[in-house]
Design brief:
Elements lengths: L2 H4 L1 H18 L10 H14 L13 H26 L4 H11 L7 H7 L4 H26 L8 H26 L5 H30 L1 H5 L4 H27 L3 H12 L3 H11 L4 H24 L12
Helix pairs in contact: 2-9, 2-14, 3-8, 3-9, 3-13, 4-5, 4-7, 4-11, 4-12, 5-14, 6-12, 6-14, 7-8, 7-12, 8-13, 11-12, 11-14, 13-14
Length: 322
């Protein structure tokens, strides 16, 4: 895990603060509107470039855990997100939508790092990545419209177009880039260079997008600076309940240690970059929704780091990456 990944939550917070400072002190922040979406689309392309389709075949090696993961991520978690939002953010519709977007999108990147740190089954964890991605694409508009209530006042076509823009376009671009990399004389080396470059690009693009977004909406964010404390309670409850539910489910299934770790991590980790991209595209005039998606990783990443140590297997598993 690189230093940038370890400090991701801190760097995102600093980028947000820098954007607010620039937006409040100068007129440069007005250009942030034209910076955010291209950066996020490029960032997600870089994330998808790193996906290896060969991992999909490993799903069948752990069917009970895979089914449990799908139920936890796409049935239990959305209901939990709706309940937490309705209970603790009833008077904050934008924060409730932001919380919903964050919690209904299971992670498709750094949960693999934490699964590996905890000596979990990284093969199964990676195989879940494209499954989670496809289901997010299909279900996210439904979640927002069904669970968001009247506060999610957006046309279905607008939301679907936003999801297509920030998921399908980057995914298609990633497929094309990987295909081009395989056409050079040394395909393996070309693919490795491409994925290395993509991995390096993700963090700068994310930080630039966050800085641009907050510079663009600096005044609105400054006027609502207390939202962090309002989000802390629902986020804390989720990041306690999610790993407990996953661990109990793995116990009922009598899943081996590595699969248990993978289930805990994929159930707990959330996909703030994708949720942030969709929030910016679908709700450009409601910056508090994006604020919730920036606050989320500030809580999530330390939780995942601690959780990786709590559930970490004492010795490497024989089939850790099988």
């Amino acid at each position: 895990m690189s230093w940038a990944e370890r400090l991701q939550g801190v760097l995102v917070a600093l980028a947000a603060l820098a954007g607010i400072a620039v937006g409040l002190a100068t007129d440069v922040g007005d250009f942030g509107e034209y910076l955010v979406l291209p950066c996020l689309v490029a960032m997600l392309t870089a994330v998808f470039v790193q996906m290896d389709p060969s991992y999909v075949g490993q799903v069948r090696d752990a069917k009970p855990v895979v089914v449990a993961s799908l139920v936890l991520n796409f049935v239990v978690t959305p209901l939990l997100a709706w309940a937490l939002g309705s209970w603790l953010l009833a008077d904050q519709p934008d924060l409730r939508i932001g919380l919903l977007l964050l919690l209904v999108t299971p992670c498709t990147d750094w949960y693999l790092v934490f699964t590996s740190m905890a000596r979990g089954h990284t093969g199964v964890a990676a195989a879940l990545l494209p499954v989670n991605l496809v289901l997010q694409l299909a279900l996210l508009p439904i979640y927002v419209l069904l669970l968001g209530g009247k506060s999610a006042a957006i046309e279905l076509t607008t939301l679907v177009e936003s999801v297509l823009l920030v998921l399908v376009v980057p995914l298609a671009a990633a497929v094309v880039l990987r295909a081009l990399a395989r056409r050079i004389p040394d395909p393996a080396r070309g693919t490795q260079r491409l994925t290395d470059a993509a991995a390096f690009a993700v963090m700068p693009l994310l930080l630039l997008a966050v800085a641009g977004m907050f510079a663009w909406q600096a005044q609105e964010v400054a006027d609502n600076a207390g939202v962090f404390w309002k989000l802390l309670a629902p986020l804390a409850i989720f990041f306690v309940l999610a790993p407990l539910l996953a661990s109990m489910t793995a116990g009922l299934l009598r899943a081996p240690g590595p699969e248990r770790v993978a289930l805990v991590m994929t159930t707990t980790a959330r996909n703030s970059p994708i949720a942030l991209a969709i929030a910016v595209a679908a709700f450009p005039d409601r910056p508090l929704i994006a604020v919730a998606l920036v606050v989320g990783p500030l809580v999530e990443l330390p939780v995942l780091a601690v959780l990786a140590q709590i559930v970490r297997l004492r010795s490497p598993a024989k089939h850790e990456t099988a």
